[in-house]
Amino acid sequence: MQSVRVLTVVAVAVTAMSALAQDSLTVVPSVSVTMTATDNVDLAPNGRSDLITELRPGIAIASRRGPLQGMLDYSLSGVVYARSSARNTAYHNLAANGNWTLMDGRAGLDASASAGRQIVSAFGTQSSDPFRAQGNQTQVFTYSLSPHIAGPFLGNASYRARATYSESRSGASSLNGNTKSLGAVVGLGGRQGMVGWGIDASRSIYETPQTARAHSGSIIGSLSFQPDPDWMVAARAGTEVNDILAGQSERIFSWGLGAQWLPTPRTVLRADYDRRFFGRSHALTFSHRTARTVWTLGDQRSFQVSNTGGRAIVSVYDLFFAQFASIEPDPIQRDLLVRNFLAANGIDPNSSVIVGGFLNSGPTVQRSQSVAVAYQGLRSTVVFSVVRSNTQQIGHGPATGDLSVTNKVDQRTVSVSLSHRLTPDSSLLVSLSQQHTPDSGSLKGNDLQTIVATWSKRLGPSTTGSLGLRHSRFDSESRPYNESALIGSLRMQF
Fold first, then answer.
1. Which of 180, 270, 392, 419 has the greatest CB tally within 10 Å of its CB?
2. What's the predicted TM-score (pTM) here?
3. Shortest CA distance to 456 belongs to which of 283, 289, 316, 304?
4. Angle at 353 between CA 351 and CA 358, to 5 degrees
5. Which helix (H) or strand (E) holds 15?
6. Which residues pair with 309 in a beta bridge?
7. How many domains does the chain divide into?
8. Number of CB atoms found within 10 A of residue 172's CB
9. Mean pLDDT, the chain, whole residue set
10. Which of 114, 128, 147 is closest to 10 using CA atoms?
11. In terms of residue numbers, what domain contains 339?
C-alpha cells in the first residue's frame, strides 16, 4: 500500500508538471550502482563479511517558471546481499515540493511529499549506512497539501486563508509514526505608516492510531512597529483552547514578543518568544554571509505533531538545503543553488547521511539547537555543524516508541566535512561525525563515530564514478560493533 502511495504521488506530480510547465520543465533520469564490501554485515560484536549491491534508478524533475513551480526527486533502491539473501530489500526515496499559483497569485496550492528510511529507536543499533540496521529502521512516507487564498480588503487591509492537511505513515508493525493533522487559519492584516496590525484565527485537529482525536484553536491579535527597513519589533496576544494536555478543553491567555534586525544585506537576526498552552516557546535564528563563508545559528522550542522526534536519515541534499535556507528562502531557487553547489564539489546529492532521530506518534515539545559554518574556497569546501535536540511527550494519551519508556530523548551530533577538487573532473571528500545519545531513564545510551573518505571523478558528460572507505565504531552496552567498508559507485544521468 505504501509503495502504491509513493508511485501515485510521483505519477501525479509528473503529469501535472508536464501539463502546466512544458516550456520550463527539466527531466533528468538517472541510474546508479553501488557495491559495498563490509567486514561486519551483522553490525554485531563478531560480525560476518558480505558484499552488498544497491541498484538505484531515479528521476529528477524541476520547473522554475510558470504557474507550477517545484522539484521532485524520486528513486527506487533495490539492495541485494551476496551471502544473506534474507536481508534483500527495496525502498523508496522521494523529496518533492511545489506550488501552483492561480488568479494572479491570489490563490494557490502548496504541496510536499517525502519517503525514505527512518530510525525507529534512538537507543537501538545505529549505523551510518541507510540500509543497514534493518531491525531499527523502517520506511516512512509523508505528504501535505495546503490550498490558500489572499487579497486586498477595504483599502490598505488584506485577507488571507489557508488550510493544511498532512499525513505520515510508517512501516513499523506497531503503527508507531502514523499521524494525521488538519489545520486552517484565516486572518486580516494591514499597515499604516510604520505600524502594522493583524488578527488570525486558527483551528487544528490531530489524530494517531494510539490516541483519541485532539483539537486546538486560537485567536491572536498582533501589532508591529517598523520605523526603519533594517529592524522591526512586534507584540501579540490572544487566547488558546485545546484538549491536548488534559483530554478536555482548556482555555489560556497567550502572548508573545518578536524582533528582527538586518544590520547588513547579508546578516539576519530574528527572535521570538511566546507563552503557549504547552509552556514557553521561542525561536532564535542568526545568519551571516561573507564572500566565502556562511554562518548560521538556531535555537527553538516548539510544539510538534510528527512521525519523527529529533532527526532522522537524510540525504546530503537535504542537509545543504536546510543550511542554505538563510541564503535563499525561496525553496525553488534554493533547490537550484544547492544542486549547483554539490555538482561543483563532486558531491552526490542522493547519498544518505544518518543524523539520529526516532519514530514517534502524538504531540511532543521539541527543542533543537544548531550551529553551522560553511567555507567555500576556490577548490575546497569545509562544512562544520553541531546539532542538539531534546524531545518530550506531552498530552494525556499513551506515549509510543522511546517516549513510552522514558519521558525525554536527547541527541547530539557533531560533524565536519572537507571537499577538495583535485582536478576539474575529480574531487576528494572526507567527513567525520559523532552522534551521542545519553542514558534516559532505564534506556542506555550509545555513541556512533564514523569517518568516510570518498574519491569521485567525472568519467563523461553524464557519468560519475566514486571509490570510498568507511569506518564506524558503535559503543553500546547491548550491541557494540566496529565496521570497515570499501564502497564503489557508478552513476549515470540521461
1. 419
2. 0.84
3. 316
4. 135
5. helix 2-20
6. 358
7. 1
8. 20
9. 85
10. 114
11. 2-493
CATH number at residue 231: 2.40.170
C-alpha cell of residue 327: 541564503
Tell the residue number behind the cell numbers 519523527, with chain if given: 308
Question: Cα torsion at 354, 356, 361, 367 (round to 10°)?
Answer: -130
d(CA 93, CA 95): 7
pLDDT of residue 393: 84
Q: Which of 319, 260, 264 is nearest to 289 (CA)?
A: 264
CA distance 401 to 119: 11
Q: Cell numbers for 354, please give them.
A: 544518518
432 CB-near residues (< 8 Å, 6+ apart): 415, 416, 417, 449, 450, 451, 452
Higher-pLDDT residue of 418, 211? 418
The residue behind cell 526516532 is: 358
Could you report the per-residue pLDDT of 132-158, keeping only the tens digit for each?
A: 766 788 888 889 999 999 999 887 899
User: How many Å is the Cα radius of gyration of the chain?
Assistant: 23
Burial 140-161 (b: 16+ CB within 10 A, else e): bbbbbebbbebeeeeeeebbbe
Q: What is the pLDDT of residues 102-131, one digit of tens each?
A: 888 899 999 999 888 888 888 988 888 867
Q: Which residue has the cell 494557490?
A: 108
Cell of 92: 523508496
CA distance 325 to 10: 25
Residue type, 108: G
Q: How many CB atoms are closer than 10 A to CB 313?
A: 24
pLDDT tens digits for 197-250? 999 999 999 887 777 788 899 999 999 999 998 999 999 999 999 888 877 889
CA distances 438 to 84, 96, 128, 137, 263, Å, are 33, 34, 18, 20, 39
Q: Where do runs of H (alpha helix) occur along 240-353?
A: 316-323, 331-344
Q: Nearest 5°: CA angle at 294, between 289 and 298?
A: 105
Q: Is pLDDT above 80 for 2?
A: no
Amino acid at 238: G
Q: Return the C-alpha torsion angle 125, 54, 315, 437, nearest 10.
A: 10
Residue 470: what residue type?
R
